[in-house]
Design brief:
One of its GO terms (molecular function) is ATP hydrolysis activity. This protein is 61% helix and 9% strand. It has helices spanning 2-11, 13-22, 28-66, 70-118, 121-126, 128-131, 138-177, 182-201, 204-229, 231-236, 240-278, 282-286, 288-292, 299-347, 349-352, 409-416, 449-454, 464-476, 492-495, 498-511, 528-541, 585-600, 607-610, 630-647, 662-665, and strands at 359-361, 368-378, 384-394, 398-403, 423-429, 435-438, 516-520, 544-549, 560-564, 570-572.
Length: 680
Amino acid sequence: MDVIHAVTTATCPRTSRLLLQAFPERSHDRVELISRLIALGLITYGEHAVNYRVMMQTARCWSGISSRDARQTAMAIVKAFGLIALVGEPLRLSKRTYRALLRREMAMRFGNAAVQKMLSDEVLARNLSTSTSEGGDAPGTAAVGAPAFGQSAFDVAANGVEACVGLLYNTQCLFLSSFWSAPFLIGCAVFGQVQQSTRAADGYDAKREAHRAETASTRLRELLAHAEQNGEAIALANGSFTETEEAMATLEAGQEFAYRREVLNARTNFACEVYNSAAVLVPIASVLPRLISGVAVELWDLQVAIMSFNGFRAALRSLVENMSTLRTAEAHAMHVSNLHDALDAVTSGDHERGLSSVHVNTPEDDMSLIEVESLTVQDYEGRDIIRGLDFVLCRGGSLAIVGSVGCGKTLLVKTLAGLWSNGRGGVRLISRTRSCVLSRKPYLPRGTLLDICVYPTCAADIGVETHELLVQVMLALGLGRHIEYLDVITAWDDKLSLSEQQRVAICRAVVNRAELCILDDATCAMDPTDRVAAYDILKKHVGGVLSLGDEVTLPKYHDRTIRLHADGTSSEFTDIASPMKGGSVEGVANTISQDSFSERTSTSVSASQAKESPAKSVNTFNPLQMDASRRENQFIRQQKKNVARVLGVKPEKLGVVPTPTKQQKRSPATGKNLSFDPLN
C-alpha cells in the first residue's frame, strides 16, 4: 500500500491529495471504500469463473459432437445456457449496477463538499467565490468538476481492480493449463502491450498531418463563407476564377494531409496489427517443445491457454487505457484543488496575520438575546474600528446603534451573526436559526412572491395559520396590492421598489417567528409611515429588535441608543430629545447636528468662540457667523434639513435660511451679483 500511495502521489498529486482529504487514513470512510472495491473485485472474479465454466461446457459440447454423442452434447448445451442465464448475466448486471451506485456516491461526496465550501457562511459573507477566481467561471467549473472528479477517480480504482483480478485469474489459468508455457505466454503478452503503447506514443507525424488537415478544412470554410458574403463584389471584379482556384487548392491540400495521416497511421499500427492477428497462434506455438519431446498435449489445455492468454492481454490493455481516465481525473482535480486552495488561503489569512478572534457563544440567561462584552472589531487590515463595546439586549427590548458612515456598523452586524471573527472580546447570541438579519438590500431568491416572503422556509411547508399571518402583516405594511400575486413567478427584483423589498423582508422575519431581528439600515428606503408600521410589527411579533443606521431616524423607535464615534469608542444616551419623549424640535436638531459635526471634522473652535457668552451656545444657530468655516455651515445646514424632513416640519422652523435664487443674489440698485453670500 505504501508503494501504491507513493506512485499515486508522484504521478497525480492533486488527485491523491483530494482523495486523502475525503478518505483520511484509518477512517471509517476509507475502510468502507476499500471494502466496496474488494466486493467489486469478488464479483469480477466470480464473473471470470463463470466464463471458465461456460468454456468448459463448450469444450464438452464439441467433444460430444466429435464423438457423435447427442446426450452429452445436449447436457453440455443446457449447462452452458444455465450458467450464462442464471449466473453469468446476473453477476454482470449486479456489477454494473453496483458500479453505478458507487459512482453516484463518489460524485455526491465530492460535489457536496465543493458546494458546501463555496456556499459556507464565511465565504458568502466575504463574497469570496468570485474574488478568488482567476478568470472565467472558476467556481462554477469547480462545482461541476467535483462530481466528475469523483466519478473519474472511482472509475480509475474500479477499472484497476477489475484489471488486476483479470490478470490474476488468467495467470492462474495459464499455470494450470501448462506450467512451463505460462511464463512464455505472459512475457509475450507484456512485450506486445509495451510495443503497442510505444507505437501509439510515437505517432507524432500522424498527429501533425491530422492537425494540418483540420487547419485546411477550417480555411476552406472561411473562404466559402467570405465568397458567400461578398459574392456580388467578387463577380463584378471578375474574381470568381481566382477564388475558385484558391478554394480548390485548399481542398486538395486538406485531402493530401488526410491521406498522409492515414498512411502514417497504417505504418505505425502495422506491427501491432500483425501481433494481434498472430496472437492466437502464440499459445499453439508454446506447446511445440512438448510435442517435439513426445509429450502428449490435451486439446482442453490448449483451449484454456488460448482463452487465458487473450484474457491476460485484455486485462493489460484495460490497465494501460486506465491511464487516460487517470489524466481526466487529474484535470478535474486541478480545478477543484485550485478553488479549495484559494478559499483556504483567504479564509485563513486572518489567522496567518496573527489577528485575534471574537468568541461567539450562546447566552446563559434565557431572557438575554444578545450579550456583548468588551467587544473590539477589526477591519480587513487589522485596524480597530470599534473598541470596548458593551451592551445587553433582553427579550422585549429594542436597541439602536447609530453612527456615521464607515464607523463599522456592517462589520458589527457580521460579528454578531458569527460571520466575522477579526477582533477581541466576547459575544453571546441566540442560535442563528432563531434570529434574522435584514440588510439595506434584502436578498430575494428566485421563485414566487410567497417563496420570497417565507425564505428560507419552503413555501410548501407553511400552514394556513402562517399564511394568514403573512396576509395580515402585508396589509399592515402597505403591501396589500401584492397579495393576489403571491403565487406569481417573475423577476421581483425589478418589480418591487427598494422600500417594498425592505417591507417584504420585515414580513420574512415575522413569518419565520424570529426571536431576534437585527436590522442593518434595513428601513432606510421607507417613508416615515411605513417605518412606524414596520417597527410596530417587529415589536409585536419579534422578541427583540437591534437596529443599526443613521442617528436621525432610528433613536425614536427604540428604548435605548448607542452612538459609535469616529475614534472607535461608543457612548449610550437615552435622554436625546425627540417628539416621542417630550423634547422640542429645535433641541433635536441642534443636539444631533452639532454632535455629528464634532465627530466628522477636525477643525478646532477658535479661542474667541470658546469665550462666547452662553447666549451663543451650541443650541443657537447663526448662519451669518463669519468665524465658522464654509464646510461647517453647509454640514449643519444639511443636518437640520434632514431632521426637519424626518420630523415633518419646515426647515425655517429650525433656523435654516432658504437658499437665495439667482434673482435674489442680484443687487436691486445695480443689478450685479452680490459678492457676499451669507450661507458661505
